[in-house]
Design a protein that fits this description.
Helix content: 25-40%
CATH architecture of the largest domain: 3-Layer(aba) Sandwich
Protein name: GNAT family N-acetyltransferase
Organism: Paenibacillus silvestris
Keywords: Transferase
CATH class of the largest domain: Alpha Beta
Radius of gyration: 19 Å
Largest sheet: 11 strands, mixed
Shape: globular
Number of strands: 11
Structural class: alpha+beta
Distance between the termini: 34 Å
GO molecular function: acyltransferase activity, transferring groups other than amino-acyl groups
Pfam families: Acetyltransf_1
Number of domains: 2
Number of helices: 6
Length: about 260
């Protein structure tokens, strides 16, 4: 049986695998010991190793160097992800030997929806919509790009991967757009597999931040997926989100440590 930590990581990997299939701008590669992504895009998680099971017969530092060369030969840096619940000192030593430096931390958070309810009050003027129509998707794109402050050279790629690609999938992926007095201000996307739903692309326009909109939208969508039978909600939080998500019940279960070389 998978632990909650493994379910949180698995949802992220499968979500990115689905994004790779839908956008066709990066590739998911799975072997008996690794799960990784590769692309020509200079963006960390599109060129990354998410899981690695070392073999006693192969020197991890040598194998890591071989994997790293696959990316460097294409002119890309490689991101390598380790998790706090499966720390391996041999892997840490191999990372150091291959000149990987830690560049970020993501908090893996979970929330059991069995018996969960939110005490957050309704917010005046706020409307949350599950969207599919072209005009709504265009509004979603503009809010997400602005909310994440995506630089112009990366805007088309981000849109293809995180907006347009997912909108083709009517079974596991759903975009939500929140409006305040008719103005689109917050985005959110769910990826549901089995009875686990991952929450992604949560972004709010800067002028509307610090009003509690994101957590209210999150609570609204949590109720929707709960009614559909989802048992566990997961989020992979940046430092900015770590202060928001516990307010609706999420708890940090692990950290994803991101190294780059």
């Amino acid at each position: 049986m998978l632990t909650i930590q493994n379910l949180i990581l698995e949802n992220m990997i499968r979500a990115y695998e689905k994004l790779s299939q839908l956008s066709q701008v990066f590739t998911f590669v799975e072997t008996d010991r690794t799960q990784r992504f590769e692309s020509e895009i200079p963006y960390g998680l599109f060129n990354s190793v998410f899981t690695y099971k070392r073999s006693e017969e192969i020197n991890p530092a040598d194998e890591m160097a071989s994997i790293k060369s696959l990316y460097h030969n294409r002119g890309q840096k490689l991101a390598w992800v380790t998790t706090s619940h499966e720390q391996d000192e041999v892997i840490n030593q191999a990372l150091a030997a291959n000149h990987f430096n830690q560049v970020g931390v993501i908090s893996g958070m979970g929330l059991s929806l069995e018996g969960w309810h939110s005490d957050l009050p309704d917010m005046s003027g706020l409307e949350v919509r599950a969207i599919r129509e072209p005009q709504e998707i265009e509004e979603f794109r503009k809010v997400m790009l602005a909310g994440y402050n995506v630089p112009e050279p990366m805007a088309d790629i981000f849109s293809k991967v995180f907006v347009d690609g997912p909108n083709q999938d009517t079974t596991t992926v759903q975009h939500y757009l929140a409006y305040v007095d008719g103005v689109p201000v917050t985005t959110l996307t769910t990826f549901t597999e089995g009875d686990v739903a991952g929450f992604y692309s949560i972004a709010t326009l800067e002028a509307y931040r610090s009003r509690g909109i994101a957590r209210t939208v999150l609570a609204h969508v949590l109720r929707i997926v709960q009614q559909k039978g989802v048992k566990l909600a997961v989020i992979h939080a940046t430092p900015m989100g770590r202060s928001v998500y516990p307010k609706v019940g999420f708890k940090e279960e692990l950290t994803l440590n991101i190294f780059s070389s």
